[in-house]
Amino acid sequence: MCGIVGCVSKENCYEKILSTLSGLEYRGYDSAGIAMLSSSKTLNVRKKKGYVSNLKGKPLPGETGIGHTRWATHGKPSDANAHPHVSGKFALVHNGIVENFRALKGELLEQGEEFLSETDSEVIVKLIAKAYRGDFFEAVVKACERLEGSYALAVLCSDDPGEIIGVRQGSPLVAGAAPDALYLCSDVPALCGAAEFICPASDGEFIRIRDGNICFCDGNGREICKEFSRVPPESRSSSVMSGTFMEKEIAEIPRALSDTFKSLSATDFAPCARILRGARHVYAVACGTALHAAQAFGDIAESEVRCPVSCFAASEFRYRDPLIGRDDLLVAVSQSGETADTLQAARLAKERGAYVLAVTNIAQSSLASLADFTIVMRAGSEIAVAATKSYNCQLLCLYYLAAQMKYYRVQEFPDWFSQFSSLSSAAEEVFACFPQMSALAAKFKDARGMFYLGRGLDVRTAAEGALKVKEIAYVFAEGYAAGELKHGTLALIEEGFPVFAVSTCSALASKTENALAEAKARGARTVLFSQNVSALSESCADFKCALPVIHEKLMPILAVIPLQYFACRMCLLRGFDPDKPRNLAKSVTVE
Ligand code: M6R
Fold first, then answer.
1. 3-state secondary structure (DSSP) of residue 373
2. Cα–Cα distance, 459 to 481 (Å, whole number)
3. Distance of CA 333 to the CA centre of its chain
4. pLDDT tens-digit map of 220-244
5. Which residue in the list 2, 287, 397, 545 is annotated as catalytic?
6. Burial of 411 per CB tally in 10 Å (0-12, 13-18, 19+)
7. Less Cβ crowding at N or C end of the chain, within 10 Å?
8. What is the predicted pLDDT for the residue at 234?
9. 8 Å CB contact between 187 and 193
10. Cβ(12)–Cβ(63) below 8 Å
11. Alpha helix (H) ranges present in 34-158?
């Protein structure tokens, strides 16, 4: 959803901006640009459609600069729509959406302004230039007063070399400090390696970098006292030597599970004991992959804790006027902790007096700062747009939460609780089926559609497997409850149509098998995934993938791994980049 960066250094900082932008590229890669301001008050801009790497070349001169990597909202990906946008003495980069930009643009057009782009962002830089009376800060504040929507901005003024003004309203912004440079940036991981200390801004705060200092202030210029913290080692940006980030991140699942498990401690839950014990109704909200994890939590928590759990796509929760109130618990799940819909759902829950518990991978995220209590999973940085290891770790954290809730209510842990420590080695065992997944991907690479079936908890795994193959291999897939097949979608099965079934729940294995047999009888090429030896031996499936044996309730954490890998292989065989799927971005910070 666009990444922004600003840097002030003692020497030329073009390369610093370029390298920080590469770390932000997962937020969007439709276009990229950099504006540099030199001590001689000259502004130079380089911006191009496509990847950040297109900006490589002779560094533009300057010790102050801003950069942007774009996920297009207003206007197609093009050089002209790329940021930074310039008006008079000002250059600006923006992450977010200006909701009243049409009205503002109309007003500016009437005043004779001409626009070079179709973006909402160009309106902001024009407002700043028009408001300028010689005071840079005042002009930015005045322009922001006219904006509705969400924004994180970094702005340069050619009258003030060595100065950047940033502001945060609804989109993330972090300040970073290193001995040789001061930064603004959309997120912490991209600053790692560059900055040593970081401090996130809150909504409504301005950040001024000037005279070698970083100062947080409000719109009246009153300083806000903030504390910088050392960059956490686990958020350091990773790099990939060969292969793709997605392959690397799948390979990291065992370690991520083990790190997450080691970081979870029952005593940490003491601050939320009251709500775990007494919550009347539990709500779980999230988007995309995280929603599948939240739904699995709903299944597990309701059956173990015997308390009603309702799961919603965060984007829907906000607008359905939910009954949530005091004594209710909202569990908000988000790898990035910056997903706009999830944040809004959490804000709504807080406004209504509910307790908000966050599960996130980023301890300094917006979600973590607004939640009453946060479980930080230790998946490590996840760069590929397709979520993989974060999903396995989300599930682990959510199972752990369900177990704590049960304990607080009936002083008893679920019988699967003792098997968490085996998950990491079991995940490694799953890797044994990767050659089989590669072979299946080669067989199915030209498929026009696929079905993923499951029953019980396996429905969540099926949905996640289908999402992965849609997202990166661009193959349409449906993932749903196997029992639904004969209520409509069976009509789509024709000769050779791939149908994958996940069957890890022994009580439902024969029912899943029936659905698979019905599909096969109509010409489908079928694949069964199970840890259940008799389900595998009795199955009519064309291909069978044996999963390691662990308590069956924990199987969703493992059974998804072959599906993640299969999607990655499909993507590569079809000639696409799994790390940067078209039209998507890692962090969806707009509604
Ligand atoms: O950062 P979040 O977990 O809140 O992101 C939510 C979704 O945007 C995300 O899981 C998305 O569905 C993944 N790209 C899917 O692989």
1. strand
2. 5
3. 10
4. 999 999 999 988 665 554 554 457 9
5. 2
6. exposed
7. C
8. 53
9. no
10. yes
11. 101-110, 121-131, 136-145
Task: Give yes or no for residue 472 CB within 6 A of ligand 1.
Answer: no
Q: 104 C-alpha to center of ligand 1: Å?
A: 32
- Residue 67: its pLDDT value, please? 97
Q: Using omega within 30 degrees of 0 as the cis cutoff, is the peptide bond preceding 435 cis?
A: no
Segment (H or E) for 237: none
Pairing outcome for strands 3-9 and 64-70: antiparallel
Beta-carbon contacts of 88 under 8 Å, excluding residues fewer than 6 positions away, are 129, 132
CB environment 549-573: b (16+ within 10 A), e (fewer): ebbbbbbbbbbbbbbbbbbbbbbbe
pLDDT tens by residue, 96-149: 999 999 999 999 999 999 999 999 999 999 999 999 999 999 999 999 999 999
For the chain, what is the total number of helices (H) and then of strands (E)?
19, 24
Kindly give the distance from the C-alpha atom of residue 335 to the centroid of ligand 1, in angstroms, as a whole number.
7
Nearest CA to ligand 1 atom 16: 386
CA of 562 to the centre of ligand 1 (A): 19
Locate tokens 């001061």: which residue?
A: 182
pTM of the model: 0.80
- CA–centroid distance, 238 to ligand 1, in Å, is 19
Distance, in Å, from the CA atom of 356 to the CA atom of 349, rounded to the nearest integer, reads: 7
For tokens 């626009």, the residue is 115
The helix (run of H) or strand (run of E) holding residue 545 is strand 543-546
Distances (CA, A) of 152 to 68, 81, 186: 11, 17, 8
Q: Which of 188, 287, 374 to mutate to test the pocket of ligand 1 (most atoms within 8 A of CB)?
A: 287
What residue's CA is closest to ligand 1, atom 11? 288
- Please indicate whether residue 387, judged by its CB atom, sits closer than 6 Å to ligand 1: yes
**Rounded distance from Cα 290 to ligand 1 centre (Å):** 6
Cβ pair 556, 296 in contact under 8 A: yes
- 586 is a catalytic site residue: yes
383 lines ligand 1 (CB under 6 A): no
* Distances 86 to 83, 90, 157, 483 between C-alpha atoms, Å: 9, 6, 10, 57
Kindly give the distance from the C-alpha atom of residue 334 to the centroid of ligand 1, in angstroms, as a whole number. 7
Amino acid sitting at position 96: G
Buried b (16+ CB within 10 A) or exposed e, 296-330: bbbbbbbebbebebbbbbbbebbeeebebeeebbb
**Does the beta carbon of 588 sit less than 6 angstroms from any atom of ligand 1?**
yes
Known catalytic residue at 76? no
Conformational region of residue 492, where left means phi above 0, alpha means psi within -120 to 50, and beta covers everything else: alpha
Q: CA 115 → CA 81, 98, 105, 296, distances in Å?
A: 10, 16, 9, 48
CB 589 near ligand 1, within 6 Å: no
- Cβ of residue 171 lying under 6 Å from some atom of ligand 1: no
